[in-house]
Specification:
40% of the residues lie in helices and 20% in strands. It has eleven helices and eleven strands. Strands 3, 4, 5, 6, 7, 8, 9, 10 and 11 form a nine-stranded mixed beta sheet that branches. A two-stranded antiparallel sheet has the order 1-2. The longest helix is centred in the N-terminal third of the chain and has 28 residues, at 59-86.
């Protein structure tokens, strides 16, 4: 049994395809297949069920793949220990970020990371929460920036900041003249939602549960204009097609200036309004956290990444320590 063979079975379990697993490991498919077969013969167990165009992991294979992943992590930890002795933060850090955080945090975060720890380049991966959690489990990424809540997977976690939601309404809308808005005032509007898979969609439905009826078999304009990104949704709001909720960091800085403070000729087609609760309770917000596997040994790299996040301006959010 070799580490290379363990690497191959982890790849096959992840990709559910021998060809894709071989590509991920930079070897030919016959080379990978022979190595997997050799390991199965040595262990005298069947790790994978093979059928036309599909590969599945056997129940016993799942336990062996989990252990193989742990062994690979421990082997990598030996190299990390040696590297940390020279420079604790040397080496790339693979960071996953959800779609509704990445565009608004990453540009400044990367700039601060390069300035503070140039020897630790960030390898970035944008995806849905569920996918990033799976990539963390399989070791494809080292850590991720997510928004709570998400399934408890036994990960280590550090809070970064609490981010309030703002309502985005067309500048010609009656609500645009107000200084703030309540969830009750939004419930009769056409709410534009992100598509299934985006955790921010679930956050919006928590604030305005009335719109859950649009989440499955709804028809008409509300279903037609279910967007794929926050920026797409905001363009639809600007066109007068409805309203939505957005996280604070996604709001352009100039958009919150009063008309008298904006540059001459600088017009905005969206008004962003704070969302207040009628009973005076805290406004709706999301908690953004940094998560990583408990077996990940580069503690200094995680601390350096957190410090780079805290160095970002982060207007309108509450930093957490």
């Amino acid at each position: 049994m070799t580490l290379t063979e363990l690497k191959y079975i982890v790849a096959v379990a992840r990709e559910k395809h021998f060809g894709k697993a071989a590509d991920a490991c930079y070897v030919s498919q016959p080379t990978l297949s022979v190595a997997v077969k050799k390991l199965e013969e040595e262990l005298e167990v069947k790790l994978f069920e093979r059928s036309a165009g599909e590969v599945s992991v056997t129940p016993l294979g799942e336990a062996i793949v989990r252990q193989a992943q742990s062994v690979l992590e421990q082997a990598a930890a030996i190299k990390e220990i040696a590297r940390r002795g020279k420079d604790p933060v040397a080496g790339a850090l693979t960071l996953g970020v959800i779609y509704t955080i990445g565009p608004y945090l990453l540009p400044e975060l990367v700039r601060h990371s390069i300035a503070r720890t140039p020897q630790m380049p960030l390898m970035l991966q944008e995806n849905f929460t569920v996918k990033l959690l799976e990539m963390l489990r399989t070791g494809e990424i080292d850590c991720a920036i997510l928004a709570e809540p998400f399934p408890d997977t036994g990960l280590a976690m550090a809070p970064l900041y609490d981010e309030p939601f703002l309502a985005a309404v067309p500048s010609t809308h009656a609500l645009a003249a107000q200084k703030s808005v309540t969830a009750a005032e939004l419930k009769n509007e056409t709410m534009l939602l992100l598509g299934a898979g985006h955790c921010f969609r679930d956050h919006v439905l928590q604030v305005c549960p009335e719109f859950a009826r649009y989440a499955s078999n709804a028809e008409g304009i509300r279903k037609t204009f279910e967007g794929s990104s926050l920026e797409t949704i905001k363009h639809m709001v600007a066109a007068g097609m409805g309203v939505t909720l957005v996280p604070r960091l996604s709001v352009p800085r100039d958009a919150l200036l009063t008309a008298s403070r904006r540059r001459q000729g600088d017009e905005t087609h969206i008004r962003y309004l704070p969302v207040r609760e009628a009973d005076g309770s805290a406004p709706p917000m999301r908690r953004v956290v940094l998560v990583w596997r408990r077996s990940f040994t580069r503690y200094e790299a995680i601390a350096a990444l957190r410090n780079a996040v805290y160095a970002c301006e982060l207007p309108g959010v509450t930093r957490l320590s």
